[in-house]
Design goal:
single chain, 169 residues, mainly alpha, 5 helices, 73% helix, 0% strand, rod-shaped
Length: 169
């Protein structure tokens, strides 16, 4: 009772429960890599960040930190305090209540900062998708390797069982 070791495609069919046209692009790429014996180079397909990408990441990192929030809160309260109490005594308040210039600056900052942070988030989601593709490939490869090992152990156990029966009989 000898059985051949199944191919990667056979094992993938067992593992993925789909063969041929039912496979999606990622699964086909993994199987092609398995058949050729090469690992995917998905991570290397990420383009190095441009100056704008690095700047967006830096702005998002700083703008999303507690340090920035605390500093900005102190600056806002300082601005309002200066323009309402301190400078008002001498008639030097350059942005008196209702702080129209401050509102303009805050709106401008929000209008600029929001798209920059979104660019950084888009770059991060691209990295996450690439990492997920690599993880998927690794998991499929591991599952197929485990299935192959199980099959080999089954063959060895079958062979050992046949030999024991031959020795008894």
């Amino acid at each position: 009772m000898t059985a051949s070791v199944p191919t990667a495609a056979d094992l993938a069919g067992q593992l993925l429960a789909r063969i041929g046209d039912d496979l999606d692009t990622e699964e086909r790429a993994v199987l092609a890599g398995l058949a050729s014996g090469h690992h995917s180079h998905v991570r290397s397909t990420l383009a190095p960040p441009t100056f704008g990408g690095r700047l967006a990441d830096r702005v998002a990192r700083v703008g999303g930190s507690w340090g920035f929030i605390i500093f900005f809160t102190v600056v806002l309260f300082g601005w309002m305090l200066l323009n309402s109490e301190v400078l008002e005594r001498w008639g030097l308040a350059f942005d008196p209540f209702p702080f129209i210039f401050l509102n303009l600056m805050l709106s401008t900052l929000a209008a600029i900062q929001a798209p920059i942070i979104m660019m950084s988030q888009n770059r991060q989601s691209q990295k996450d998708r690439k990492d997920a593709a690599v993880d998927f490939e690794t998991n499929v490869r591991a599952e197929i390797a485990i299935l192959r090992l199980h099959h080999k152990v089954d063959l060895l156990m079958d062979k050992a069982g046949v030999e024991q029966e031959e020795q008894r009989g």
